[in-house]
Design brief:
Subcellular location: Cell outer membrane
Membrane topology: Multi-pass membrane protein
Strand content: over 45%
Largest sheet: 22 strands, antiparallel, barrel
Distance between the termini: 74 Å
Pfam families: CarbopepD_reg_2 (PF13715), Plug (PF07715), TonB_dep_Rec_b-barrel (PF00593)
Structural class: mainly beta
Radius of gyration: 33 Å
CATH topology of one domain: Ferric Hydroxamate Uptake Protein, Chain A, domain 1
Organism: Flavobacterium franklandianum
Keywords: Cell outer membrane, Ion transport, Iron, Iron transport, Membrane, Receptor, TonB box, Transmembrane, Transmembrane beta strand, Transport
Shape: globular
Length: 998
């Protein structure tokens, strides 16, 4: 009986034994370093596993069976099982795209498994650039990404992805380590690991109502396994103005002003003898030695169980105008702990403590007459500008820079934190719960002093600007943003199929409160001292309680969302991405609180097909496309469905006057968020052993149900009516090659075409105007609107023989406007679109060459086909204040000019919005040039240094442009942008830097 049982059990177990046994192995690279996360598949046994942190694996297979091993960044390999213990070596793939893992919404993915347009920029590309805002360094580097930088310290760049899609907001959504935000001033560029720019519907739909403007995902640095590492990076830079507007000097000003008074029928100016200066006001207020200093220190330590990172940074940035000082301290701390194979927890904490600069503008320096000396040494006070030449409109520029220095004390403090826990529920399923908080605390005090200035015409001291009372203004505001994410992620590979699925729930809350107050000194009393110890509202005994004013504001809003996504890959050839999100918002009423957003994308990697294996041309050939609906939650107010109250007609009851209150506008219960329907199609090509890579994409984004505020006079209301279209092509190319072991180089470039058109706004003929900018159907958003100038009337006979005008009195020397509608007269109906602030083409190019330890790199960037509106030195100010030197070519007789009108400020005819104010906005800029030297590791090892890099960098050293202002770049609102107010230059910055790692 016992033998029978033995034989019976052997017969049962034999098939299982024959079908497989536990095979142990290790997967390593060519340096014998274990590769974690590699996928091992037993072909016959239909079993699979992945390698642990050290590259080890166990799998049920049998001797003689084939194992397939794959890993991102390595060539797939097939090996036959020869023993119960296997050692497998993988070679790194030459296709760098295989290595690239990108961060997407609520997770990561292999770039090859995606169907859309995501561009990854490594943090090292921006860490050594002298920009206080990291996004500024992306200018010209990414197709479809428009960045307009400002030279003011601490200023935020104007960022637009694939055009302007709404009338209320252009900002993309920033996602920093998972938290949603609209401002990244708390981020230190040196702490950034990577930045991903998401542009297409398949990657954006997962963000729901906040995805329409595009998304920039920022991942901060995390520690990697290894010993403790300390890194110190510092930059010292000097700024300069490289392009100044050309203005009249004292002699030229007198010539032009004398002629202007003559044309106006006024007597010659009688006080030239009292104004003998020849002042360049731009130079007088410029900080010729403005500096920027960055210090960054990071400490990392990582083991297989715990990863710790700490980074701190200090920025000191001086403006191009004296006494503009911006200081910012940042820190970033994160720690991840692997409690067990199934549980991981982490915490992150970032913050910023900033002292914003007291900012000024060059606008007054452009307008101030040059015949005045800034300071009167004899009287010991500043000189006032001539009363008849701008003195009533603008003050002495130097007075308001030097006299108000240190009178604004602002502080911005912000803390951003997150905590998460990740649970591996099953082998292929994990759950992640995360909580995020973004807390801001801002406050400021402003002291408004009183000055005496010398008035030369009357030989008296007078009060500057007519102000006789000192005063104090104070403000304080706080905000709270919190976010909760609960996510399930399923990742499974079975045979040739690969699936990553995501499902989850998220909540977002935003609350804001502000308080403002002011107080003035007693009339005729002692001034409030110019001493910060006295700068508060209850300033006894100087502040007059009866002058005290206060106000406050507060609001809150929130969203709740459900989301899902699937990334499917079959045999690395056929790729399908699908996303869905349902958002609920507190801003709307009823069913319109909820909206659904979705996308579907597909890709075909043609190069993986069998029929492509014998060809030698394409290393990569991928076709892709996606379609989806995105959302836009931005409006001009917080609750468009809930009108506030405003003062209405009052009534008298007996002897009592009772004020009435009415709704600010008519309520519309059918309001909902704007929807952007977007689709794209493209191709990716890699050839010549992947040294040459090309990508081309067509995109189309159409905003539907445009949120529009309609004011008809008798009534006003918000409604969903209107459509905006953005279409274009994106092209990018790169070449990377090594000549030999000592020399390698790379060239890359990108180009974007963009066509923006407002298809409709409410109803036919409805327009929204902001100065010369307009939102109207049939034209690009923010187009410039006015009269077309055809020339200048050269004589009275020219006036009589030309189309008559109803715009005012005019004569020889005045601008000649075009009869656009052909009705035989010049009227307001002849106004038309005269310029487009959106470029037709944006482009950038980068080159880099490394020879031994030296690296030389350069970036070029530019735009073409847009116009700039000159809002200084023209219109109402082209004659009253100082003159552009172009005015020396003014009309002063038949045939003398056919563009610059006569000097006559008494006539408003030439001050109409017209193409006279339009300038070419196209430019080419040498964005960065850098020379770096990396010291030899053998030398550094003697001093226990891992790496040492010295570099010099020149930013914005040269700009080729056609406009007359400081810079052709001008950001702004969605409707009003591209307007040059002459306020601030974009500086050239020369920097010296050091990066050392211990």
């Amino acid at each position: 009986m016992r033998n029978f049982v033995f034989i019976f059990l052997a017969l049962i177990l034999l098939p299982a034994y024959m079908s497989g046994q536990v095979i142990k192995g290790k997967v390593s690279d060519k340096n014998d370093v274990g590769i974690p996360g590699a996928i091992v598949i037993a072909v016959d046994s239909k079993t699979n596993t992945d390698t642990d942190f050290d590259g080890n694996f166990n799998i049920n297979a049998k001797v003689g069976e084939v194992l397939k091993v794959s890993m991102v960044g390595f060539d797939a390999i097939s090996v036959k099982v020869t023993s119960e213990t296997m050692a497998i070596t993988m070679n790194e793939s030459k296709d760098t795209e295989l290595k690239e893992v990108v961060v997407i919404g609520y997770g990561t993915a292999k770039k090859r498994d995606l169907t859309g347009s995501i561009v990854k920029v490594e943090g090292k590309m921006i860490a050594d650039k002298p920009n206080t805002n990291p996004v500024a360094s992306l200018q010209g580097r990414v197709s479809g990404l428009s960045i307009v930088n400002s030279g003011q310290p601490g200023a935020e760049p104007d960022v637009r992805i694939r055009g302007t899609v709404s009338r209320y907001n252009t900002k993309p959504l920033y996602v920093v380590d998972g938290i949603f935000t609209d401002n990244i001033n708390f981020i230190n560029a040196n702490d950034i690991e990577s930045m991903e720019i998401l542009k297409d519907p398949s990657s954006l739909a997962i963000f729901g109502v906040r995805g329409a403007n595009g998304v920039i995902i920022i991942s901060t640095k995390k520690a990697k396994e290894g010993k403790t590492t300390i890194n110190y990076n510092t930059i010292l830079g000097v700024k300069s103005i490289v392009s100044k507007p050309s203005l009249a000097n004292a002699s030229q000003f007198k010539t032009l002003y004398n002629e202007q008074r003559l044309n106006e029928g006024a007597a010659p100016y009688a006080y030239y003898d009292k104004f003998t200066g020849d002042t360049d006001w731009i130079n007088s207020i410029s900080n010729d030695n403005a500096t920027i200093i960055n210090h960054n220190l990071s400490v990392t330590n990582g083991t297989d169980k715990n990863k710790f990172y700490l980074g701190v940074g200090l920025v000191q940035d001086e403006g191009l105008i004296d006494y503009e000082n911006y200081k910012k301290f940042t820190f970033n701390l994160n720690n991840e702990l692997q409690i067990s194979d199934a549980i991981k927890v982490g915490v992150g904490f970032s913050g910023v403590d900033a002292r914003p600069a007291q900012l000024h503008s060059f606008s007054s320096a452009l307008n101030a007459t040059p015949i005045v000396e800034p300071y009167n040494s004899e009287k010991g006070v500043y000189n006032q500008l001539p009363t008849q030449i701008g003195g009533a409109q603008i003050g002495n520029p130097l007075l308001y820079v030097e006299g108000t220095q240190g009178t604004q004390l602002n502080r911005e403090t912000r803390f951003v934190g997150n905590v998460f826990a990740e649970f591996k529920l099953f082998k292929d399923l994990k759950f992640r719960a995360a909580y995020y908080a973004d807390l801001g605390y801002n406050k400021g005090t402003a002291y408004n002093p009183v000055f005496n200035v010398y008035t030369a015409e009357t030989d008296q001291l007078t009060l500057a600007g007519g102000s006789s009372q000192t005063s104090i203004n104070q403000y304080s505001n706080t905000y709270e943003k919190t976010q909760q994410d609960y996510l399930f992620t399923y990742n499974k590979t079975f045979g040739n199929h690969s699936l990553t699925a995501l499902a989850g729930y998220t909540r977002y809350y935003f609350g804001y409160e502000s308080i403002n107050g002011s107080v003035s000194q007693y009339i005729g009393g002692e001034p409030i001292p110019n001493d910060r110890r006295w700068w508060y509202l209850n300033v006894y005994p100087y502040g007059d309680p009866s002058s005290s004013r206060s106000s406050s504001g507060q609001y809150e809003n929130g969203t709740v969302s459900y989301l899902a996504r699937a990334l499917y890959n079959y045999d690395s050839k056929y790729i399908l991405n699908a996303s869905f999100r349902r958002d609920g918002s507190s801003a709307f009423i009823g069913d319109n609180r909820f909206q659904n957003f979705w996308s579907l994308g597909g890709a075909w990697d043609v190069s993986k097909e069998d029929f492509m294996q014998d060809q030698k041309i394409f290393n990569t050939l991928k076709l892709k496309g996606s379609y989806g609906e995105l959302g836009n939650q931005y409006t001009s107010i917080q609750y468009p469905s809930y009108p506030n109250y405003t003062t209405g007609a009052s009534a008298v009851f007996g002897e009592t006057l009772v004020p009435a209150y009415i709704l600010a506008y008519r309520s519309n219960p059918n309001l909902k968020w704007e929807t952007v329907t977007s689709y794209e199609g493209g191709i990716e090509v890699g050839t010549l052993d992947n040294r040459l890579k090309l990508e081309a994409t067509y995109f189309n984004k159409t905003t539907n149900d445009l949120l529009t505020f309609v004011n008809l006079g008798a009534e006003s209301f918000y409604t969903n009516a209107g459509e905006i279209s953005n279409t274009g092509f994106e092209f990018s190319a790169s070449w990377n090659d090594s000549v030999n072991d000592d020399f390698e180089y790379s060239i890359s470039g990108n180009l974007t075409t963009l066509k923006n058109e407002v298809k409709s706004v409410y109803e036919e003929g409805f327009q929204v105007a902001d100065g010369p900018s307009i939102l109207t159907a049939g034209s690009p958003i923010g187009s410039f609107y006015g009269y077309i100038v055809e020339g200048i009337y050269q004589s009275y006979s020219d006036v009589l023989s030309s189309t008559p005008s109803s715009l005012g009195d005019y004569g020889p020397g005045d601008l000649k406007y075009k009869d656009v509608n052909g009705d035989g007269k010049i009227t307001p109906d002849d106004r038309t679109i005269i310029g487009n602030p959106t470029p037709d083409i944006m482009y950038g190019m980068s080159v880099s060459a490394t020879y031994k330890n030296f690296t030389l790199s350069a970036d070029l960037q530019g735009v073409y086909g847009n116009e700039v509106w000159r809002d200084w030195g023209s219109g109402s100010t082209f004659a009253q204040f100082n003159y552009r030197t172009e005015r020396l070519d003014r009309w002063n007789g038949a045939g003398t000019s056919n563009w610059e009108p006569r000097l006559n400020d008494g006539s408003g005819y030439n001050k109409q919005n017209s193409s006279y104010m339009i300038e070419d906005g196209s430019y080419v800029r040498l964005r960065n040039v850098q020379l770096a030297y990396n010291f030899d590791s053998k030398l550094l090892n003697k001093f226990y240094i891992q790496g040492l890099k010295l570099f010099i960098n020149a930013q914005n050293p040269v700009t080729w442009n056609n406009n007359s202002g400081f810079t052709p770049e001008a950001g702004g609102s969605p409707i009003s942008f591209g307007r040059d107010f002459g306020g601030y230059p974009l500086p050239a910055i020369a920097t010296l830097g050091l990066n050392v790692t211990f």
